[in-house]
Amino acid sequence: MGRPVPQADVSGTEPFIGQLMLVGFNFAPRGWALCDGQLQAIAQNQALFSLLGTAYGGDGRTTFGLPDLRGRSPIGRGQGPGLAPVSWGQRGGNETTTLSAANMPPHVHTPTAPQVQVRGAGAQAVGVTTGGAVSGGVPVGSTSSAGNGSGFSNRPPYLGMYWCVSLFGIYPSRN
């Protein structure tokens, strides 16, 4: 019994071992596996292990991991101008974000009314206990805290699809 041969892509060429492919259907074609972080046995996948190593998981003795692109966007490794460096296999980002005062630019909440007029002596006004009296104006100049510090998703619009990795095919040369 021979090994499964991956199906050729639309150009009719055999894929490279370890090549990724995005598909619009809900399964990995024959000779491909879903990029869901599953562990593979090194003994049965030596060529693929020689390319991926333990960049995506595994113990490096009996198993290695496939890339896990569930809920993630792949980005190029390296460092672009003005960007932080990204290593091969490095995971980053957060599922949710929580803003704090330290994340916000300096700002003030300036009231638009210089003061609030209240009725004369003997009248009740907002913030005055029962039986109290206020006359004149009350300066406006403070705000109260708001929010509860809950995290929120910060994703651009997205569409869930399946990433697959070729388990077999042409072993890629470096030059």
From TrEMBL:
Source species, domain of life: Bacteria
InterPro entries in UniProt: Phage_tail_collar_dom, Phage_tail_collar_dom_sf
Q: Which residues form the Phage tail collar domain?
A: 18-74
Region (Disordered), start-end ranges: 71-90
Q: What is this protein called?
A: Phage tail collar domain-containing protein
Organism from which the protein derives: Rubricoccus marinus
